[in-house]
Amino acid sequence: MYFVANWKMYGSLSSLNSLNKVIKFSKSKDIKKGRLIYCPPFTLIDAFSKKFKNCQIGIGGQNCHEDDDYGPYTGSINSRMLKNIGAQFVIIGHSENRAEGETDKVINLKIKSALKSKLKVIFCIGETLKEKKQKKTKSTLSKQIHFGLKNIKNKANIFIAYEPVWSIGSGVIPTHKDLFETIKFIKNKFRDKPQRVLYGGSVNPKNIINLKKVNNLDGFLVGGASQSAKKFIDIVKKTYS
Ligand code: PEP
Q1: In this structure, are residues 202 and 165 in contact, taking their beta carbons and an 8 Å threshold?
Q2: Which of 94, 96, 102, 131 is flagged as catalytic?
Q3: CA separation (Å) from 58 to 61, 87, 217, 231?
Q4: Atom in ligand 1 nearest the alpha carbon of residue 204
Q5: Which of the following is catalytic: 96, 102, 127, 163?
Q6: Which pTM does this prediction carry?
Q7: In the predicted model, is pLDDT for residue 203 greater than 80?
Q8: How far apart are CA 186 and CA 123, in angstroms?
Q9: 8-31 residue pLDDT tens
Q10: How far is 101 from 219, CA to CA, in rounded Å?
Q11: Which atom of ligand 1 is nearest to the CA of 91?
Q12: Nearest CA to ligand 1 atom 7
């Protein structure tokens, strides 16, 4: 199982001390190398990568520019820069960025650029509440997968993160049946080679007890709860207990 911590636009240098507990925990024999991944804001990637130097925790960015070359894009960071500063992963297509106008086409370019820079991609997909109510979940996911992964043959370094938009930060999670069916639907789109699929949306130390029973999942993308080392560790521990 993979556990990805998405810190969003939170955290400062003083947050680094809170990671000591996670570093200690990551050394326990039950946690396989690279199964815990932290995606802090860009400003903290360098500090995290130094902090995690001798441990097995992965580091990722939360987004990148679609151009892997340098260029006149004020305020942007590309995949090459992320790789250079010590990241191994990048989240692409998060609904918070889609809501700001990021299109499937741009997401596709970003994924291609990240793979070119040898980053592993956490590719977020998910339907809005309106789409869910209109029973458009499957068509939305199909479209996001089709256009997001267009002309990408080798998908070995891509993790799909199914994050229903209505679940992010709301405390509401899908039912066991709906989640199982949706993950199955996503996995069936990758018949030639099995694709890893994570779930994200309001995961916390309480609901993980039910979420972990959805046995076709490969892990979790955790937003809010991941800013507390204790909660993040609890989520991992309870997944395995
Ligand atoms: C996210 O934004 O990726 C996420 C999963 O957030 P939260 O856990 O806070 O719902």
Answers
A1: no
A2: 94
A3: 11, 8, 20, 18
A4: 8
A5: 163
A6: 0.97
A7: yes
A8: 12
A9: 999 999 999 999 999 999 998 778
A10: 28
A11: 3
A12: 223
Q: Residues 64-101: pLDDT tens digits?
A: 999 989 999 999 999 999 999 999 999 999 999 999 99
Domains of the chain and any CATH numbers: 2-10+17-118+127-240 (3.20.20.70)
Backbone angles phi and psi of 89, in degrees to 5: -130, 165
SS3 content of the chain, % helix, strand, coil (to 5): 40, 15, 40
Residues within 6 Å of ligand 1 by CB: 6, 163, 168-169, 200-203, 221-225
Residue 42: what are its φ and ψ, rounded to 5°? -50, -40
Model confidence band, residue 237 (pLDDT cutoffs 50, 70, 90): very high
65 is catalytic: no
Residue with tokens 């997909």: 125
Which candidate, 76, 98, 19, 28, places its Cα nearest to that of 53? Answer: 19
% of the chain beyond a pLDDT of 90: 93
Catalytic status, residue 146: no
Q: What is the pLDDT of residues 170-195, one digit of tens each?
A: 999 999 999 999 999 999 999 888 99
Predicted confidence band at 34 (pLDDT cuts at 50, 70, 90)? Answer: confident
